[in-house]
Amino acid sequence: MATSKNPADAKAQILQWLQSIRARQSSYSFRLVQARLKTEGMPSAAGWTPLIAKYTELNHDDSVIDWDRYASTLGNLHKQAVMAGTTAVWLFDAPTQDVSDMLANMQLLEKRGSAFAATFPHPVASDVLLAQRFETEVVQAIDVGNGVVAAVACGKRAFRHREQIAAEHVGAQTREEFGDFQELIVVRAGFTQAFDRLVFRRDAGRFEIHLDLCCPLNTEELQKMHESYIKRIKPIMERALGRNLPWLYSPVNLFPFIESLYNLEDGRVLNLGHSTGTKSIKEERMRGQSLDLRREMFHQHGIRAIRGTDAFSIKKGWDSKVGRHTPSISIPGHFSKAGVAGAVVRHAIVENCASMEDFDMVLSKLA
User: Taking all residues of the chain, what is their mean pLDDT, rounded to a whole number?
Assistant: First the structure.
């Protein structure tokens, strides 16, 4: 099929989109990318390296390829990877007028002349990222529709994680230097670009902070980042609106949802942390996302046998309307909160979403 663009330019754009999506691989699974490509009838592969090689080898003079559609599909896929990747979420119930007025003044949060804005929606080059501060910068607002606007904030995050490398994937010289081994444990460190979102749901009267989990972050780190956003947003918006916004200090307490998510028959409970009446701590999980812990025999008999139990954490998933993956949400409480009156958990983790529709479906379970 002929295209309206220069095929060579379209191919370069396609490869750029692929590299940008690949940069999101820590929070947006390759399985989701692979499934979308197959659904669209586009070339796919078993991993990122062979996938990019396959698109690199495509002949841009091939008139059979709809280059415009390929580029458009990958551009949309990158948007999903940014907006629906693995995310820590804080929810704020607010007067609809406050949310509407904040939205009208959102440009006050934007950083003009930002290096991140210059390349958005693509990430900056690694040498540019290295020179940036860790504090995020609001670079662009995206109208999601239905009265929802997301202000995307980019910034530098440091990561450090362990990787296992099998012996057969190591060169002969390295094997000789280390002697007999089955695998090596290496620590990989560096920087990656985060795409956080400040979400304004005007009609619903809700404001949300979405922290991009593009690298592992513990509860303390997440809390500090959340507080940093509040410290920046609150004074700017209060000056602009001419009134106080006390609700910004009170994100929704998600702890009560642990019990309700467990009791509601929809979806599948994948993980459950609970403290039993017999003074033990149980952290149960299923081996597959197609299985429901509540239907598992050991769990059922155990619950009946003990003198009550208090859940302190949960992970629950639901079928996606598109695809065979399981979008899920986790409320990560600590066992010290089990059975405590007024226990509080302020954030949830949303993961395995292929699209914004998946993401919104999961969040709707906390309404």
Answer: 90
